[in-house]
Amino acid sequence: MRITFLGCGDAFSTGGRFHTCMLVETHDARFLIDCGGSAITAIQQRGVDTNAIGTVLLSHLHGDHCGGLPYLLLDAQFDRRRTAGLVIAGPPGTRSRIPEMLQALYPGMWERPWRFPIELVDLAPREPWRFGAATVTPYLVEHACGSPPFALRVACGGKTVAYSGDTQWTPALVEAARGTDLFVCECNGYDRPIPSHLDLAMLVAHRGELETKRLILTHLGPAMLAHADTLPFEYAVDGLGVTV
After folding, report:
1. What is the pLDDT tens value at each position of the chain, 244 positions in all?
2. Which of 42, 102, 126, 228 could form a disulfide with 6 if both were Cys (CB 3.0 to 4.6 A apart)?
3. Burial class of residue 16 in the structure, from the number of CB atoms within 10 Å of its CB (0-12 exposed, 13-18 middle, 19+ buried)
């Protein structure tokens, strides 16, 4: 399994980083985890063939995690002339929010004929959902975003990765990370708590509970980036590729 951090920035693109978007590739599957507002730029820069991506998984419905979907869909429709179906799966509300978002940005676009089938799926907490050769299990976390936020645990080809999404500390992260080959964990704050997010002191205090072979931090805020060279954990940068 190969994970490429197309974007690992926070909501403000601190440090010039792209919004959250991860490309996951295995022998049997190719999908995105989150597709933040600037993801389409990162996708174009990296030359990613989005026609080969069958599924987009969403952790939650904030713009820096799902706001790139309208541009991904328009690019597929008009530039790449996609014909294969695309599935977008996320928390409850995904089925209504994605059309609303596209309607707000490009009125009437959702109702026009699409070249390719689009399926919108509302995932349910702790209920595994299979897509192709992969399975995702969502865990409810704690992040104020207007709809249930998820950590996502994905298994495919004998490997398992988990992603915290945006959240403050919650025991659900222990369950999501248990036995994984990789746990991608947000850590926005450095020396003070950030509402609805993890901070470094909190993560250090709970690191022993996260039973994963490898931990990589993402969604770093300004102070975290300023102290990046002294962090006790590995952290993502845009373009980082990891094989598990």
Report:
1. 999 999 999 999 999 999 999 999 999 899 999 999 999 999 999 999 999 999 999 999 999 999 999 999 999 999 999 999 999 999 999 999 999 999 999 999 999 999 999 999 999 999 999 999 999 999 999 999 999 999 999 999 999 999 999 999 999 999 999 999 999 999 999 999 999 999 999 999 999 999 999 999 999 999 999 999 999 999 999 999 999 9
2. 42
3. exposed
Q: Give the burial string for 24-62 (b: 16+ CB within 10 Å, else e).
A: bbbeebbbbbbbbbbbbbbbeeeebebeebbbbbbbbbb
Give domain limits for the chain.
2-243
What pTM does this model have? Answer: 0.98
At residue 206, the 3 state secondary structure works out as helix
Three-state DSSP at 139 gives: strand
Q: Which helix (H) or strand (E) holds 63?
A: helix 63-66
* DSSP H or E run through 105: helix 94-105
CA distance 136 to 159: 12
CB-neighbour burial class of residue 197 (10 A; exposed 0-12, middle 13-18, buried 19+): buried
Cβ neighbour number for residue 143 with a 10 Å cutoff: 23
Q: According to CATH, what is the number of the domain 2-243?
A: 3.60.15.10
